[in-house]
Design a protein that fits this description.
Helix content is 39%, strand content 20%. Mean pLDDT is 94; it is low at 1-23. The chain has 435 residues and is of the alpha/beta class. The chain has 14 helices and 17 strands. It has two domains: 2-81 and 429-434, Urease, subunit C, domain 1, CATH 2.30.40; 84-397, Metal-dependent hydrolases (TIM Barrel, Alpha-Beta Barrel). The longest helix has 24 residues, at 317-340. It has helices spanning 2-21, 102-117, 133-140, 178-191, 211-223, 235-243, 259-268, 277-280, 283-286, 295-301, 303-313, 317-340, 359-370, 375-390; strands at residues 29-37, 46-54, 57-62, 72-83, 85-90, 120-125, 149-152, 157-158, 173-174, 196-200, 228-232, 248-250, 271-273, 343-344, 407-410, 424-429, 432-434. β5, α2 and β6 (120-125) form a beta-alpha-beta unit.
Length: 435
């Protein structure tokens, strides 16, 4: 009798385990057959991988399973699959008309669509968002939105009359008092921002936000579980804010970092988005004029590509030389950060001069390789590193079970030539192919 009961229990347990390992309804399952998988973790690429997706999330990444009958199959067996790129520093939309108008909303959404066309599946809009952009942010995370996912820092912080107010925007919070800064952080937290932005930028003699105000913003932000990022142009200001527990640096300093600063960034886990393309500016395109003839780039950018070409033609050799010098200075700092093991991300300050949304993200990844990263390290910076910078690595940045199914199918291997990140066959967002 005991043997019978024992046998029955074994049979039932086996049946339950078998059922639990099977997909309940294969018609709700999508399987991506990857010839080569670069998963964003930095681990070696894998060949002949199946990526199982249910709803908008990855459920399994395996080389062992069979494809269940009835599942939707995306065949990339002769291609490369990698996570969607994440750009930590974008300014979408027509900022001259920022506000609740339908025209401005359309301009933001157009940039999100443009980013996605280039395989940038998530962007962080960093500090120049009117209140109306919160609704766009929420919409962008829906399962039927055909554009990049958007994160927002709302309105960032600067000194009274500080950068970037000289560009004609009144959106930044111009604050010189720590108590007022704390109050504004509380208001932004209540609005639901994804992080906080500070400009510490001594540009053209403009006022610079006080260190005590920046410290108050960082401290109050952390009380509300918000990551805090800063535009930093100098090594001294970088040291000051890193000492105050800054989470992310955007813009690499133009002067040399102290060793103490670099070690502190490494030890604290401060993540740096160096934005080398913002140092190269026009050089990015003067060194790669084939972009102007690229059919895919032409189709996505349209008239913007012509305007970019004209802007380059109007750039003097002397200006290009200054850009080259600026890049070389930044590159020296970058190499030191890399060698010290400081964590890196990809950001571009896109939708500024010589920085078209989407395309410039690829150029930053390429420039990171030019400056000393391996292709794998650059890809990790643009995927997992950027997700960590933005505080969304629990959802994005790698192709692993439980993550949102945002990925690119590439024709060629970017580990062989990093420019192959632009050879996009398909973009998958939340498990669906977006045309």
């Amino acid at each position: 009798m005991k043997r019978t009961i024992h046998f029955t229990l074994v049979v039932l347990l086996t049946a339950i385990l078998t059922m639990s390992c099977q997909v309940e309804d294969p018609s709700n399952v999508t399987v991506v057959k990857a010839g080569l998988l670069i998963d964003g973790t930095g681990n070696p690429p894998l060949r002949d991988v199946l990526i199982f997706i249910e709803g908008n999330r990855i459920t399994q990444v395996t080389q062992q399973e069979e494809i269940p009958p009835g599942a939707t199959v995306i065949d990339a067996s002769q291609q490369v699959v990698m996570p969607g790129l994440i750009d930590t520093h974008v300014h979408p939309g027509d900022r001259a008309n920022a506000g609740p108008s339908a025209e401005y909303r359309a301009s933001v959404i157009q940039h999100l669509k443009q980013a996605l066309a280039f395989g940038v599946t998530t962007i962080f809009s960093l500090g120049l968002d009117p209140d109306s952009n919160f609704a766009i942010r929420d919409e962008s995370w829906g399962d039927d939105f055909d554009g990049s996912r958007m994160l927002t820092a709302g309105t960032g912080f600067t000194a009274v009359g500080g950068h970037p107010t000289q560009l004609g925007t009144d959106l930044p919070n111009q604050i010189d008092d720590p108590a007022l800064a704390r109050q504004r952080v509380q208001e932004l937290a209540a609005q639901g921002v994804d992080g906080l932005k500070i400009w510490v930028a001594p540009i053209g003699g403009l006022p610079v936000i006080k260190a005590e105000v920046s410290r108050a913003i960082i401290e109050e932000g952390h009380k509300h579980n918000l990551r805090v990022f800063a535009h930093l142009n100098t090594a001294e200001d970088t040291q000051t804010l890193v000492e105050a527990q800054l989470d992310g640096v955007t813009h690499i300093a133009g002067d040399s970092y102290e060793e103490e600063t670099i070690e502190l960034m490494r030890r604290q886990g401060t993540i740096v988005a160096p934005m080398l393309v913002q140092k190269k500016k026009g050089l990015v395109f003067s060194e790669d004029r084939e972009l102007f003839e690229d059919p895919f780039v032409r189709r996505v950018l349209g008239q913007e590509l012509d305007e970019l070409k004209e802007a380059l033609a109007q750039t003097s050799p002397e200006a290009l030389e200054r850009m080259a010098q600026s890049y070389q200075q930044a590159k020296e700092n970058f190499v030191r950060l890399k060698n010290a093991g400081v964590r890196l991300a990809v950001g571009t300050d896109s939708n500024t001069s010589f920085a078209p949304v989407g395309l410039i993200t690829h150029k930053e990844v390429e420039t990171l390789v030019e400056a000393g990263l391996s292709p794998m390290e650059a890809l990790v910076a643009g995927t997992r590193g950027s997700a960590e910078w933005a505080g969304v690595s629990d959802r994005l940045g790698t192709i692993e079970a439980g993550k949102l199914a945002d990925m690119l199918i590439l024709e060629e291997n970017p580990l062989v030539d990093i420019r192959n990140t632009r050879k996009i066959v398909k973009v998958i967002l939340g498990g669906r192919v977006v045309e």
